[in-house]
Here is the input.
Amino acid sequence: MSFIKPRGLSALLLSLLATSLPSLAMADELSSGDTAWILTSTALVLFMTIPGLALFYAGLVRSKNVLSVLMQCFAITCMVSILWFAYGYNLAFGDGGSMNQWMGGFGNLFMSNVDRASMSGTIPESVFAMFQMTFAIITPALIVGAFAERMKFSAMLLFSAIWSTIVYAPVCHWVWGGGWLGDMGLLDFAGGTVVHINAGVAAIVAAMVLGNRKGFATVAMPPHNLTMTVAGAAMLWVGWFGFNAGSALASNGDAGMAMLVTHIGAAAGSLAWMFMEWVRHGKPSVLGIVTGMVAGLGTITPASGFVGPLGALIIGLTAGVVCYTATSFIKRTLKIDDSLDVFPVHGVGGILGTMLAGVFVAIMGGAGLAEGMTMGGQVKVQFIGVAATIVYCGIATWIILKIVDVLVGLRVSEDEETEGLDIVLHDETGYNL
Here is the structure.
């Protein structure tokens, strides 16, 4: 009878243990399932900007400006992609050394250290970098809605490039790249601060610096093609699953729950806005229900990885009511021409969702709540994150706009605005009837 030698027995046991406990695999071991899901999510988030957001915004402006909005979204997509490759990814997710609490470093310019073997958790770093690139693209594209129909194309390009560098990348680093807000325990699963508050605050500042459109509050400026807007809104809804569920960075239960609560938040926001409008004006509108959808999606975004279905329902309903009220207040009371309601939908929604993430996680429990953190403590952290983003983004955006105004001028002339940006800036028209 033969016996296994002790050394051979130990090796056999270790081998059996390794094969029976897959959870003990190395953290940087590639997961084909996670990689496939994040590849899909990346395509979905890019789909949100072009064609989703582009069509959503294009339908909301007047026909003489439809191409200008499509052009802006497309150009931002191209430009920010190159900037992210050149240095943006490193500023947001690189190691900033002694300044790491505030910004990344410059050791990986032009993604010099990203190759086929580079890993970020269980997915290739190339996939992670591309996924985050789509977030960097959609954030300045959202701001387009605030200055639609009156900003020069050259000014838009210059502003978007500087803003992405000075505002988006640092705030992204604070929250997701190893910076001070992430270390503090801020709960922002998919971009309440980084994307929505950032874009919303920049939008309201831009609207005030540029001034109102000619005829604002005295001349009707209805959407020229609501069919286009609804099509774009539907694309946004579908793409948002990649935005939120993809932020789990894995194909797992967190991604599944994020997808479920995202859908519930969107549906609840749509209905809440629709009924608010129905009660006030006597009829529900298509514009109202799709805007409520975007408000619900923006508000559930920071909380999507931390709350359950009931929390999502409450957050979505609250978003529809609060964002609807904010839209009316800004346009009718403050008389600020945020052309396509970027701040009341994305800014207010982002603030509301970021704060409610702390409240619901503290009350109901959930991933991300620091051990021993009380509701007051978590809500305080959320408030600090919201306030810091508002203050930094607001001041930096104002300065950038003033610099751009000096360099190239921000706004087209009154005659050019009357004629329409499509002809004036691009020598084309959206419709040849």
Observations:
- The radius of gyration is 23 Å.
